[in-house]
């Protein structure tokens, strides 16, 4: 595919989607007909470690860059969608305690949405990255029928992100903290082995979804236990952080230790989806994160394991879909753009 096929020019007004990450911003453009103008990652350094002023300038650079790349005149842009990692308020104010990506004191309580809006002179619609990815998964899957459906997305990464979509819209909650699926506590019966310590989460909870179904959960909880069950496994010779990252490649080779760990993660996500089934009874359950990039047989096994661990009633089984969140690297920017389009299209 050459560059001409990857980049289109707009035939209508547009919105821009900006995904802010720890090292890079990713940008996209979505036109009023629902077409994305770029098919690939368009990244620039996010400079979040340099503090808010530099980071807002870097977002403005990403905005200017994507308009240039797609030959989109500024006058066609109606709004900008922005997503960042949380925790942040529903309106894009970074937590007063800071966050993993925003640990400088100048970030604490910083209104990144308002600052970007002032910088660009355009309306900016904010979502956290989990909600943005959930929104993209929903709209990609259901297309024009998105408003008729609900879904829940679990994104297994460093933590466990995701979101809840109802009638095509992200459920935000009163304080902006709806859809913090990683910190939902789940029944551990049938998940943990006899004698396995109860997993602890960085949030202070024990036995929540993230304490099991995340890279952090593998490193802190699952792998230290499972290595004692496989004393001859080569990962016993690696530092735990390195071993945790290497585990997926073992899973792709059907290694017994790796399948035990990922099997526990799948059960934990299944318990979460069982709770969702009784809360909002969604049409679709989406699974995302690094596993989407794994070898096809492995990611299908993981998705099937999650489905088997999700206890649905027969009526729910007849209508519910399980699917992987597509376009992992672009899901944040694309979801942010979808949110902006939803906001200005009504
Ligand atoms: Zn937690």
Automatic annotation (TrEMBL):
Which Gene3D superfamilies does this entry report, sorted A to Z? Answer: 3.30.420.40
One GO MF annotation is:
kinase activity
Keywords, A to Z, come to:
Kinase, Transferase
Q: Which domain of life is it from?
A: Bacteria
- Pfam families of this UniProt entry? ROK
Signal sequence segment: none
Q: Which residues cross the membrane?
A: none
Q: Specify whether Kinase is a keyword of the entry.
A: yes
Q: Does the keyword Cell wall biogenesis/degradation apply?
A: no
Q: Which PANTHER family match?
A: GLUCOKINASE, ROK (REPRESSOR, ORF, KINASE) FAMILY
Family in the record: Belongs to the ROK (NagC/XylR) family.
Name the record gives this protein: Putative NBD/HSP70 family sugar kinase
Native organism: Actinoplanes italicus
């Amino acid at each position: 595919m050459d560059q001409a096929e990857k980049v289109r020019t707009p035939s209508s007004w547009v919105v821009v989607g900006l995904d802010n990450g720890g090292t890079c911003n990713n940008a996209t453009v979505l036109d009023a007909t629902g077409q994305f103008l770029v098919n690939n990652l368009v990244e620039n350094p996010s400079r979040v470690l340099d503090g808010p002023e530099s980071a807002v300038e870097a977002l403005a650079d990403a905005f200017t860059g994507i308009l240039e790349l797609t030959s989109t005149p500024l006058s066609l842009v109606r709004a900008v969608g922005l997503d960042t990692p949380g925790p942040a308020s529903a309106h894009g104010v970074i937590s007063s305690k800071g966050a993993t990506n925003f640990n400088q004191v100048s970030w604490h309580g910083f209104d990144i949405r308002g600052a970007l809006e002032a910088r660009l002179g355009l309306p900016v619609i904010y979502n956290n990255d989990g909600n943005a990815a959930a929104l993209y998964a929903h709209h990609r899957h259901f297309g024009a029928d998105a408003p008729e459906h609900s879904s829940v997305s679990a994104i297994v990464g460093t933590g466990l992100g995701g979101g809840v979509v109802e009638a095509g819209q992200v459920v935000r909650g009163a304080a902006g903290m709806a859809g913090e699926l990683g910190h939902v506590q789940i029944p551990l019966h049938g998940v943990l082995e006899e004698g396995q310590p109860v997993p602890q989460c960085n949030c202070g909870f024990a036995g929540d979804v993230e304490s099991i179904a995340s890279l952090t959960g593998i490193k802190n909880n699952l792998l230290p236990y499972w290595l004692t069950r496989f004393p001859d496994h080569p990962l016993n010779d690696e530092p735990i952080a390195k071993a945790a990252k290497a585990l997926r490649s073992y899973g792709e080779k059907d290694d017994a230790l790796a399948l035990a760990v990922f099997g526990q993660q799948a059960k934990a996500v299944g318990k979460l989806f069982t709770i969702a089934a009784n809360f909002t009874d969604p049409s679709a359950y989406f699974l995302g994160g690094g596993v989407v990039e794994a070898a096809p047989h492995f990611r299908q096994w993981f998705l099937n394991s999650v489905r088997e661990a999700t206890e649905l009633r027969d009526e729910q089984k007849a209508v519910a879909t399980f699917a992987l969140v597509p376009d992992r690297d672009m899901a944040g920017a694309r979801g942010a753009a979808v949110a902006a389009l939803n906001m200005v299209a009504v």
